[in-house]
Write a structure and sequence with these properties.
Blueprint (H helix, E strand, L loop, with lengths): L2 H11 L3 H11 L5 H10 L2 H25 L1 H82 L2 H15 L6 H70 L16 H4 L5 H12 L3 H19 L8 H25 L6 H25 L3 H19 L6 H9 L1 H21 L7 E2 L2 H7 L16 E2 L5 H20 L8 H24 L6 H29 L14 H29 L1 H4 L13 H20 L2 H24 L8 H24 L2 H4 L10 H11 L9 H7 L5 H10 L5 H4 L11 H16 L1
Antiparallel strand pairs: 1-2
Helix pairs in contact: 2-4, 3-4, 5-6, 6-7, 6-9, 7-9, 7-11, 7-13, 9-10, 11-12, 11-13, 12-14, 13-14, 13-15, 15-17, 15-18, 17-18, 17-19, 18-19, 18-20, 19-20, 19-22, 20-22, 20-23, 22-23, 22-24, 23-26, 24-26, 28-30
């Protein structure tokens, strides 16, 4: 029954294939969009609409058939729904009644509930308020602490408190007013702290600069003490070595070591600097503070390096140099302990600037100094400055080089001072042998300079062979050596003995030797003075070995190294030459005095008719004078010098006798005059022999006696007194008896010889008188000499 209507409906509907496709797609719930688009694209939307309408009609028919099929079930369902509606109304009435009763019962509870909820709200608000209050109280307590720290100057704690507030509380402060206030004041507090710390730091800068001088003086004083202790130890060691070398005892060495912490000696407060640096680090401006510190200290350094124009350098150099030393001692401490405030490069830059400026200042000031003492004092203090700063790692070579560059200037000043002192000593010398009356004077004036002639202590009073000039000059030279070594020591070169020796030679040669020569060669000097100077030069020459040993000791050179012959001073040879020059000057003075006594042309009657058997008065004076000269020379001059002076004086007398015969003032002479001179010459020869033997010279000089110095005069007198003077023409006889005579001089002399007084004026009236054989012999000699000439 059901299928027939369906088939009929299908047939009636006349479904086509396309209608089935659309119906199937709708039944399957597929999308019809592409069919709609396709129908519009082909221009046939009406067909699609028709198909859709057909599908709608088909579905309506299906619904209608479905409803007809389930009609009875639907009526039953409606009936059931009506029953349910009645039950629902009853239930609604019950619910309304129960609701009314419930509202009556729960209104009180509702009020209580509202009260409870309100209490919970209040509790929540109170809890939140307490929490907020606690935060605010904690923040405010921290603010109070910060203010307390600020008032007490505890800026680091104040900064830590501010940092705590800023880090842990600022973002959590619930009260905006407090938060805004704190946020506004934090930069103000930090700025205030930075300002206060900077002010304290600036005060410290001023204090540390004013303290730098005391710091430097303390450090330099400590360096001086160390140097003195080292020098004393070296001196003890040298003495011990000398005693050991001489075999006087066993050498015992002891080493005293005293270690001092430099930081404990130099106490100065860097706390304000550390605090300022740390606080600036906390503020985050560490680099800015480092730059600020460096610039300010550099300004202070530049100011310290400027010399005061109102105070002479020799009065202000200690303060000036101590200020510099103190400055760099502070910088070294800052570099080592501040943890990055100052870099090594910055310190090196400041030091290089200082070295350049200081070297320039020293060179300029040294060029203006005119006192060796002042220059030495400045140099010594600079050397101590160098020793002090070397301990802190500063390179002081350039400063010491500036000192070495001025050593020639220093020694020029020192030489000039010594020249004046030596000139004063020599000009004020008594030129008398020094009389020493006690041991201490002997030690100070003789042994101290190795001037002793014997190792045996003499009996007192002791008459030294030299005058007071010798020990006085030795003291001046010793002082010069000390001054020279003091300047040369602690310089760039640790071995300076050669330089000290060079300057010592310069003093002895250019100053001492020159002054002595000038004095001995000056006009108006007496024979006794020249003789004493010659003796003094001998002892000054002997003292050269002591001077060299003393210089070696002060320079730390072993004495044995300067005891070799090749190590002696050049001045020793120069003084030896000067000693010979002094002998020549002495001999010149003696000869000059002898010329005054001799004056043969005036003291001899060359044509006397009388025969004199005694020697002349002038010869007595000559012998007396020579005796006094020899006696004095024997006491103070060495025997070789005595021999030189004696020979020179006697040779001069011999030459004077021969020259007297040759002088133009003697026109003629006779045998009587020859006889007088012969007597005088015999007296002189006897004196010469006696002195040659009594002085001990005969034991030393076997071949050259004093008498031999008179040989020319003796041979001339023998020739003029000979009965056969023509033998002079015989070469054999002349070589044997007259070898000291010059034939030209003999020819000139015999031309003046007249055998008698008549022979001079009466030769014309007595031509027929028989000439003596002597006269013939003399005439023969004259003829032969003329022919020979």
């Amino acid at each position: 029954m059901d299928s027939k209507p369906k088939r009929r409906g299908a047939m009636e509907n006349g479904d086509t294939g396309e209608d089935l496709v659309v119906a199937t797609m709708i039944g399957n719930g597929e999308d019809l969009g592409h069919l709609v688009r396709r129908s519009f694209e082909v221009g046939r939307p009406e067909a699609l609409v028709h198909q859709l309408k057909h599908v709608v009609k088909k579905k309506e028919v299906e619904i209608e058939e479905l409803c007809k099929t389930h009609y009875e079930d639907f009526i039953l369902a409606v009936d059931e729904l009506r029953g349910v509606l009645v039950d629902a109304d009853e239930l609604k009435s019950n619910l309304s009644s129960d609701n009314f009763k419930l509202q009556e019962v729960g209104s009180a509870l509702l009020e209580k509930l509202e009260e409870l909820l309100e209490s919970f709200s209040i509790k929540k608000n109170v809890t939140e308020a307490i929490k907020i209050s606690k935060i605010c109280v904690e923040v405010l307590e921290l603010c109070v602490k910060c203010n307390t720290y600020l008032s007490a100057g505890q800026f680091f704690l104040a900064l830590k408190t501010v940092d705590l507030i800023e880090t842990n509380y600022l973002q959590n402060i619930p009260v905006n007013a407090i938060k805004i206030m704190i946020r506004k004041n934090i930069p103000i507090i930090k700025a205030h702290i930075e300002k206060k710390v900077t002010a304290d730091f600036n005060e410290w800068l001023a204090r540390i600069r004013s303290s730098a001088k005391d710091i430097g003086q303390t450090a330099i004083g400590h360096a001086a003490s160390v140097r003195q202790r080292d020098e004393e130890m070296l001196e003890r060691q040298r003495k011990a070595e000398e005693m050991n070398i001489s075999g006087l005892g066993d050498t015992v060495y002891s080493l005293d070591v005293e270690e001092l912490d430099e930081d404990s000696v130099l106490k100065f407060d860097l706390t304000p600097l550390y605090r300022a640096y740390h606080i600036h680090s906390c503020l985050g401006v560490q680099e800015q503070f480092c730059e600020y510190y460096y610039k300010n200290r550099l300004l202070q350094l530049n100011s310290d390096l400027q010399l005061s124009s109102s105070t002479p350098f020799v009065e202000s150099y200690q303060t000036y140099l101590a200020q510099i030393a103190g400055y760099f001692i502070v910088e070294d401490r800052v570099l080592r302990t501040s943890g990055g405030l100052l870099s090594a490069d910055q310190v090196e830059t400041m030091w290089e600037t200082t070295v350049t400026k200081l070297a320039s200042v020293l060179e300029e000031q040294f060029s203006h100094m005119d006192s060796a003492t002042h220059l030495l004092l400045v140099k010594d203090y600079i050397a101590l400055l160098g020793a002090t700063l070397t301990q802190y790692g500063y390179e002081v070579g350039s400063i010491l080089e500036a000192l070495d560059n001025s050593r020639d200037k220093y020694h020029e000043l020192l030489l000039e001072e010594c020249r004046q002192q030596i000139a004063n000593v020599i000009s004020n010398d008594s030129y008398k042998q020094m009389v020493i009356t006690k041991d201490s004077d002997y030690d100070n004036n003789v042994l101290a300079f190795h001037l002793q002639t014997s190792d045996v202590m003499p009996a007192f009073p002791y008459i030294a062979p030299f005058s007071s000039m010798v020990p006085d000059c030795c003291r001046i030279v010793r002082s010069f050596i000390k001054g020279s070594v003091d300047y040369l020591s602690f310089g760039v070169n640790s071995i300076f003995y050669d330089a000290a020796r060079k300057y010592l030679d310069k003093l002895l040669i250019d100053v001492l030797n020159e002054v002595v020569l000038t004095t001995v060669q000056s006009e108006g000097i007496a024979v006794s003075q020249a003789m004493q100077i010659a003796a003094n030069v001998t002892f000054l020459e002997r003292a050269c070995d002591f001077f060299l040993q003393h210089a070696a000791q002060l320079c730390g050179i072993p004495v044995r190294s300067v005891e070799r012959p090749k190590a002696s001073l050049t001045a020793k040879a120069v003084l030896k030459t000067s000693r010979d020059a002094a002998y020549v000057a002495l001999l010149k003075l003696v000869n000059s005095k002898l010329d005054e006594f001799l004056a043969l042309t005036e003291n001899i009657n060359w044509t006397s008719e009388e025969i004199f058997q005694n020697n002349s008065e002038y010869m007595n004076e000559v012998v007396f004078y020579l005796d006094s000269v020899f006696s004095t020379a024997l006491q103070i001059l060495p025997l070789d010098a005595l021999y030189k002076v004696g020979c020179g004086a006697l040779e001069h007398i011999s030459n004077s006798i021969v020259a007297a015969f040759l002088t133009d003032s003697v026109k003629r002479f006779n045998a009587n005059a020859v006889m007088v001179i012969n007597h005088d010459l015999q007296v002189l020869e006897n004196f010469a022999d006696e002195r040659f033997d009594s002085t001990g010279l005969s034991e030393i000089y076997k071949e050259g006696s004093f008498r031999s110095c008179l040989v020319e005069a003796r041979q001339l007198i023998d020739l003029l007194s000979s009965s056969q003077p023509e033998n002079f023409a015989n070469l054999v006889i002349r070589e044997k008896s007259y070898n000291a005579l010059d034939h030209k001089k003999v020819a000139s002399i015999i031309e003046k010889f007249k055998d008698s007084a008549d022979g001079i004026f009466g030769s014309l009236s007595t031509r027929n008188t028989k000439t003596s054989s002597r006269k013939k012999s003399m005439d023969m000699l004259k003829k032969r000499l003329k022919d020979f000439n």
